[in-house]
Amino acid sequence: MPTDPTMLDIERLDELRDLDPGNTIYLDRAIANFESNSVTLFAELEAVVATGVTDDVVRVAHRLAGAALNLGVADAGALLRDVEARAGSGDLDVASALLPQVSAALERGRVALAAYQAAYQA
Length: 122
Known about the structure:
Elements: H1 10-17, H2 25-51, H3 54-70, H4 74-88, H5 92-97, H6 99-121
Helix pairs in contact: 2-3, 2-6, 3-4, 4-6
């Protein structure tokens, strides 16, 4: 999978990096948390979609969208907002059909975040 840090909201990441000038501990921790939590939350999203409980789908999609958008992983965040909206309107079939796209966008986001991190750590 190609590394493309341009897919990220670099302005958002730079804002997080500048919270403590000269110290990237906060951003490094946030990226590490996203790397593991996005996998865990996506698995939880798949599980709640399978149960058909729309409130749970909305809750998990919202949480994962927030995590993605906070770190500038905009395409995954937008897809997850769509899952959230579809589930909220009771359209779990469409929400479920979006999951492969969400999974791929999250993976691209993790790869791009790693490339962004490597660039400022160099």
